[in-house]
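Run log // design_07
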């Protein structure tokens, strides 16, 4: 059973305004579930997959060529090299590009960040 979260409207607004979204928070609180539910049309990827992680680490530009937005990247903290690549490829003028990243965090709290 899915539990509606108070943050859902904030997430929808942020992705529509900026085209990219990063949600962080404690492990096992439902970040992936809420994002997959709200953005079901996005292709879901996880960097827990060793093949995807290797591509992200070794060829970040190729990663975004293979997986064009809209895309949801879970466990992105394993490949920080993707962030500069994402900035170059998805400029503010292209707000229709939808990229959602979700790094896990071991501390408590949830942050929502959208970037140009």
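design_07 sequence
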């Amino acid at each position: 059973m899915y539990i509606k979260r108070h943050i859902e409207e904030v997430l929808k607004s942020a992705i529509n305004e900026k085209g990219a979204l990063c949600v962080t928070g404690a492990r096992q609180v439902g970040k992936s579930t809420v994002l997959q539910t709200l953005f079901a049309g996005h292709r879901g990827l996880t960097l827990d997959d060793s093949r995807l992680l290797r591509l992200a680490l070794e060829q970040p530009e190729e990663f975004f060529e293979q997986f064009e937005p809209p895309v949801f990247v879970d466990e992105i903290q394993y490949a920080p090299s993707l962030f500069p690549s994402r900035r170059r490829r998805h400029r503010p003028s292209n707000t229709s590009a939808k990229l959602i990243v979700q790094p896990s965090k071991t501390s408590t709290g949830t942050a929502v960040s959208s970037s140009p």
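The beta strands are 20-26, 43-46, 71-74, 99-102, 104-105, 110-114.
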